[in-house]
Amino acid sequence: MSQLTATRQRPQPSAASRIRTNSLWNAVQQTASLAATSAVSFLLVLVLPVREYGIYSYAVSLSMIGVAIMTAGLSGLAVKAFVNDKQRTAATMSAILLIREVFAAVAFIFLGAISFTSGDRLTIAVTLVSLTMLFARALDAPELWFLARLESRATAVIRIGASAAMLVVRVMAVAWWNNLWVFVILNIVEALVMSLLILRRYFRDPNSAGLHRPHVKTLIELFRQSWLLALSGVANQVNLRADVVIIQALMGSVAVGVYSVASRVSELAYFLPVVIMNSTLPVLLEVRKKSGGTSKAYHNMLQRSYDTSFWCGVGVAVVISLIGPPLIPIVFGHEFAAASSVLLIHIWACPFVFMGTVYSKWIIVEGFLWSSLIRHVLGGVVNVALNFILIPHYGIEGAAVATVFSYAMANYLACFVGRQSRGEGIKMTLAIFWPVRLVLAYFRIGVPTAPAKHRA
């Protein structure tokens, strides 16, 4: 039997199996990256003065807003394009790289200007240098091609290896070059090394189409679809990071340092639903394509995702609420003891953040890009308004309250604003009552489980 015949006869893994494998690799990579980042944050809290740690956190927060601008909302759209139009992969990849670099420049200028509101020369300088990382991050676009093919192992190995190597370098830096600037430069080096290795892996892959001069039509089409998601991404990052920027302006770098410890602990949990839904997106696209947007299989898949994501978020919030506050002063020192009360509030955004990852993928699949913009703008407005109202009276605890309310708005309540998204809001409401539905189902009392696409 020839090798080709044997290959054809070899059983191919099912979609569910590929999702599990891809999710596992994504989970391992995200866990390794978060472990490395958390270890570095822990070291910085121990060795840097509270003010310098606050400056570092401020610069990182603005850089993360820059990443949202730089990606231009193309992550989900790129996966969709690679799945639906495999013949134009090379041109699509080139277009994505070009658009990301242009938006990196826009982000650098915009966020660099914002850094001047801090009124501190060191904060401004650190932020401007940190923002150069965006140009390196723009080059990791081929990772989306591997994600679309459910082959995240290729890039996960690179990121895990690079994270481990850079962690060793940072530990050495703590011992020998304990300086804020050293850690800022190492962040840039890490982004550049990872992106170049991912590019190299893409070009060496036997299935890679390489790069091709992008068609003007492709650029226009991607930009036409992406600008709404780009604005949405910026609004989302405002929702995520506005608290740090406002705390810096109203209370200074020391308060930012204390608040960042609590928010960092909360954000460690946010990667869980992202990992799962990133791997589920290609299959969700296939189910939608084959069965249609009103099929029972499609809506049942969405309902199950909302159910599990919300209650996983509740479980994480309960665990962190029990073990987090007592550990903060022990691990980070009494200078950060005030972060315990912040964490008790901040962590309860988790259930809404978890559901929001499912909702964001539904938006991509259905193409309702305005829904993405609306949800994040509403969340950002609530966040900024509540921060300015609550911080003067309640300090950093007020910022935590603002975060929970803004996340609930962006990831749940905003669904009821748009006509097309109300069906997802109903699914999320059902997810909140999942235990009740299970009890009723046990006693064979009929309740709705996955409403069809809302048409009202």
Largest sheet: none
What is the total number of structural domains? 1
Number of helical runs? 19
Order of helices and strands: HHHHHHHHHHHHHHHHHHH
What integer is the average pLDDT?
A: 82
Classify the beta-strand content into a percent band.
under 5%
Low-confidence stretches: 1-12
The tally of beta strands, per DSSP, is 0
Report how far apart the termini are: 58 Å
CA-based gyration radius? 22 Å
The outline comes out as globular
The percent range for helix content is over 70%
What class would the helix/strand composition place it in? mainly alpha
Structure description:
- The chain is mainly alpha-helical.
- It has one domain (14-442).
- The protein is built from 19 helices and no strands.
- It has helices at residues 3-9, 15-47, 50-71, 74-84, 89-115, 121-131, 133-137, 142-148, 153-176, 180-204, 216-251, 253-267, 271-291, 296-332, 339-346, 350-366, 369-411, 422-432, 434-442.
- Helix 3 (50-71) packs parallel to helix 6 (121-131) and helix 14 (296-332) runs antiparallel to helix 15.
- The chain is globular and about 55 Å long.
- The termini are far apart.
Q: What order do the helices and strands come in, and which of them pair?
A:
Elements: H1 3-9, H2 15-47, H3 50-71, H4 74-84, H5 89-115, H6 121-131, H7 133-137, H8 142-148, H9 153-176, H10 180-204, H11 216-251, H12 253-267, H13 271-291, H14 296-332, H15 339-346, H16 350-366, H17 369-411, H18 422-432, H19 434-442
Helix pairs in contact: 2-9, 2-13, 3-5, 3-6, 3-11, 3-12, 4-5, 4-8, 5-6, 5-11, 9-10, 11-12, 11-17, 12-14, 12-15, 13-14, 13-16, 14-15, 14-16, 14-18, 15-17, 16-17
